[in-house]
Write a structure and sequence with these properties.
By secondary structure, the protein is mainly alpha-helical. It has 8 helices and 3 strands, in the order αααααβββααα. A hairpin with a 5-residue loop joins strand 1 and strand 2. The longest helix is centred in the first third of the chain and has 22 residues.
Length: 200
């Protein structure tokens, strides 16, 4: 497994997410997950599976390897997804079919934003808040702890925010709600729409 390049410059998301945070987050934290994942899968024949496929079938792996692969594979998959769901050219909310589905499920984008933000603010400790398509093919806001992946629960990620302190502490310190508000200025609505369409 290898560290993917960021799809934009380190400073492209400023002022909402700062250059220094992006450098440390991508080059140090994400790289560390990739390195530890590669160590965890030594001696296991994964074929040509992507990390997403590995996490979706985690019970097929040797039991003593599952936890390090969940932790580090989740860190790799979650961060790879996170970089793609951010954009310096954000339209600040999804459009098309995803927008319609959000309005149907949450009554409006503003209601969705409020529910998603509340889930993110109240998530205790480290983890992630997600908009997923669940097993019933319905949109749902959910959270995961640490580096657990919604893929392991049979859910399809559409949108996410990293709630680990390393994602925001250099700029926002303990002000997680400000970071969450800023996140909505850099969401890649087109990518989220594309993921939604592929899942349906």
């Amino acid at each position: 497994f290898t560290l993917p390049d960021l799809p934009y410059d380190y400073n492209a998301l400023e002022p909402h997410i700062d250059e220094q945070t992006m450098k440390v987050h991508h080059d140090k934290h994400h790289q560390s997950y990739v390195d530890k994942l590669n160590k965890a899968v030594e001696g296991i024949d994964l074929g040509n599976k992507t990390i997403q496929e590995v996490l979706s079938s985690i019970n097929e792996l040797p039991q003593d390897k599952q936890t390090p692969i969940i932790n580090n594979g989740g860190g790799h998959a979650n961060h790879s997804f996170f970089w793609e769901i951010l954009s310096p050219n954000s339209n600040k909310q999804p459009t098309g079919n995803l927008a319609e589905a959000i309005n149907k499920t949450f009554q409006s984008f503003d209601n969705f934003k409020e529910e998603f933000s509340n889930s993110a603010i109240t998530k205790f400790g480290s983890g992630w808040a997600w908009l997923v398509i669940n097993k019933n093919k319905e949109l749902e806001i959910t959270t995961t702890s640490n580096q657990d992946s919604p893929l392991s629960e049979g859910n399809t990620p559409i949108l996410t925010i990293d709630l680990w302190e390393h994602a925001y502490y250099l700029k926002y310190q303990n002000r997680r709600p400000e970071y969450i508000e800023a996140f909505f200025n850099v969401i890649n609505g087109e990518k989220a729409e594309d993921l939604f369409n592929k899942a349906n």
